[in-house]
Design a protein that fits this description.
Number of strands: 9
CATH topology: Protocatechuate 4,5-dioxygenase, Chain B
CATH class: Alpha Beta
Number of domains: 1
Oligomer: single chain
Largest sheet: 7 strands, mixed
Helix content: 25-40%
Shape: globular
């Protein structure tokens, strides 16, 4: 059963070594992510599953390595402290889960075993909900760390240029995450999310599925901003 969740953004720029001179611009987001992980630890889960965007839908066991070399930084991470440190031969964490692993390492996560689950953009809402229900049943007390960004079309200089639909989309997502509104997350339009270059749609809908049957969850929005024209949101459910 889902007992807690944290939604965090997953831009590689969240890692100071990647951001370099621009690192202070995301200090508030990093601090909010640290607070969110504290909520997960306080829930005392039996299992933490890190969910994030991926090219397809794939498991990443404890110990799976990742790196930020593709972003010009010689920095390695691995998912959790368990496993043999190698994960599945030949498989590395996608960037979103690598950012999640970095957050866990940065905060010294030791609250529960960690697994990863990548979800592809092509995974439809119903399949995401089913995936969430499956994850919630993996242990008696499951927590999710859900990695994903909002639209990438908030300004003229954003990666997806300016789209007037972007800000309202992000506003609704922030409201839904901040109030644990699973119905609103289930209703997110996959096609619109794709047009707005939203990486978090599938992970957020997995969260909505995991929360089905979890009575009494309340949400809190810890951070919302779009410093590079991309929506970054941090929220907790507990």
């Amino acid at each position: 059963m889902l007992v807690a969740a944290a939604a965090c953004p997953c831009p590689p720029l969240l890692v100071p070594e990647v951001a370099a001179g621009a690192a202070p611009e995301l200090d508030a987001a990093r601090a909010a992510c640290t607070d969110a992980l504290g909520v997960l630890a306080a829930a005392r889960p039996d299992l933490l599953v890190v969910v994030g965007p991926d090219a397809g839908t794939c498991d990443y066991p404890a110990g799976t390595p990742g790196s930020f070399r593709r972003f010009g930084v010689d920095l390695d991470v691995r998912l959790g402290d368990g496993g043999d440190g190698e994960g599945v031969a030949g498989r590395e964490l996608p960037y979103g889960l690598a950012v999640g692993a970095w957050l866990l390492g940065r905060t010294g996560w030791a609250g529960a075993p960690v697994e990863g689950r990548g979800v592809g953009e092509s995974l439809g809402p119903d399949a995401c909900l089913a995936e969430g229900r499956r994850l919630a049943g993996l242990a008696d007390r499951v927590a999710l760390l859900v990695m994903g960004d909002g639209s990438a079309c908030r300004t003229l200089k954003a990666p997806g240029y300016l789209d007037e639909r972007a800000a309202p989309f992000d506003l609704e997502v922030a409201r839904a995450l901040g109030t644990a509104d699973t119905a609103a997350l289930r209703a997110l339009d996959a096609g619109l999310a794709r047009e707005l270059k939203v990486s978090g749609r599938a992970p957020w809908q997995v969260l909505a599925g995991a929360a089905e049957g979890a009575a009494g969850l309340s949400g809190a929005l810890l951070h919302e901003n779009a410093p590079y024209g991309v929506g970054y949101m941090v929220a907790t459910w507990s």
